[in-house]
Amino acid sequence: MKELYLMRHGQTLFNKLHRIQGSSDSPLTSQGIADAKEVGRYFDQINLTFDHAYSSTQERASDTLENITNQPYERLKGIKEWDFGVFEGQSEQLNPDPQIDPIRHSYGDFFLQFGGESDIQVQQRMNQTLTEIMEKPDHNRVLVVSHGGACFAFLKKWLSYEEIQKQVTNFHNCCILKFTYSDKEFKFIKEINVKSL
């Protein structure tokens, strides 16, 4: 059974300032760097190694990965953050109600009218990219650093909203979601929060 460790990047300046940062980018804070290094120490302590590592093409994800491990990695556009269109870089106070689409339990199609993506578009590209990664030979245990919105959209592909509420309690920066993979299907195993261990 293959394993995927899907991780949210470390804290950034925009996280700290409560700004929307989908396709836009901002640097890791000193806290974000420290938390990423702590994840690396945790992996070393439990002797967890990865056949391959990937990050999104965004700097905050690749910088997080480089603070976790020295192993070579590949950057992929398919696992970048949700594109929020003209809302990029603006205050998070301008976001709509997160439950604006009560059926999909998300922003739904809201950002399409502003040049961004829908939750379904994000989910489809995340699932396609992560499936392609896990289908590669010698990819038995893989570390992927992505983003909060993108990871949540992917999680909703494989868990109901009610199951997510029960099983994912603190999806903060540097949180890790562990999945197993077989026959083109992902199974959520657990949430790992190194800071709370």
UniProtKB/TrEMBL annotation:
Gene Ontology CC entries for this record: cytoplasm
Entry GO MF terms: phosphatase activity
Database matches in PROSITE patterns: PG_MUTASE
InterPro entries assigned: His_Pase_superF_clade-1, His_PPase_superfam, PG/BPGM_mutase_AS, PGM_Phosphatase
Positions bound to substrate: 8-15, 60
Name of this protein: Probable phosphoglycerate mutase
